[in-house]
């Protein structure tokens, strides 16, 4: 499967997950580090419009990365869509940049030459430790709603 097909499958899966969560999705006109925007509007049980930018990383198998270039986007959600070559096994992990960076620190990636010199670290072969750290960020419709609507503070959603 070529990288463009993987990207399309990942985006479509992410659209599906977000819509099933009761969220809306918008595509930016240009690719400047944000692949899509998930939002809840006034008709979806929120008291005000809430939106979060998402950077998607799609993989036919597994892949996880942190890149310093994304720290400039407030509230950016990094969505890692895995196992697109096997839809029954596909899953998504979603983290804010600081959550991904925290995992990188726990894995000691931020002291590697790659991180120090290039501001990036990635792996296509996640260890058991990494998968365990990611599990709390595994997405479901309810998890997506919380991540987008009320990720870090008091509840803003109604009922």
Task: Write a structural description.
This protein has 159 residues and is an alpha+beta fold. It has a single domain, classed as Trna Endonuclease, Chain: A, domain 1 (3-Layer(aba) Sandwich), CATH 3.40.1350. It contains 5 helices and 7 strands, in the order αββββββααβαα. The strands form 2 sheets. A 5-stranded mixed beta sheet has the order 1-2-3-5-6.
- Beta strands, count: 7
Shape: globular
Q: Give the neighbour order of strands across the main sheet.
A: 1-2-3-5-6
- Count of separate structural domains: 1
Based on secondary structure, the structural category is alpha+beta
Distance between the termini: 43 Å
Low-confidence stretches: 153-159
Order of SSEs, N→C? HEEEEEEHHEHH
CATH topology name, in short, is: Trna Endonuclease, Chain: A, domain 1
Helicity range: 25-40%
Which key features would you list for this structure?
5-stranded mixed sheet; Trna Endonuclease, Chain: A, domain 1; two-stranded antiparallel ribbon; alpha+beta; 159 residues; 5 helices; disordered C terminus; 7 strands
């Amino acid at each position: 499967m070529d990288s463009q097909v993987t990207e399309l499958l990942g985006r479509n899966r992410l659209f599906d997950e977000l819509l099933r969560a009761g969220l809306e999705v918008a595509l930016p006109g240009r690719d400047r580090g944000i692949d899509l925007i998930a939002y809840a509007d006034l008709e979806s049980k929120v008291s005000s419009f809430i939106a979060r930018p998402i950077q998607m990383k799609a993989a036919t198998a597994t892949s996880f990365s942190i890149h310093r270039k994304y720290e400039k986007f407030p509230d950016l959600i990094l969505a890692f869509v895995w196992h697109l070559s096997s839809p029954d096994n596909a899953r998504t992990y979603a983290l804010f940049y600081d959550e991904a960076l925290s995992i990188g620190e726990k894995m000691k990636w931020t002291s590697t030459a790659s991180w120090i010199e290039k501001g990036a670290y990635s792996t296509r072969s996640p260890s058991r430790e990494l998968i365990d750290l990611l599990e709390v960020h595994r997405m479901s419709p309810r998890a997506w709603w919380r991540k987008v609507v009320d990720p870090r503070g008091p509840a803003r959603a109604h009922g």
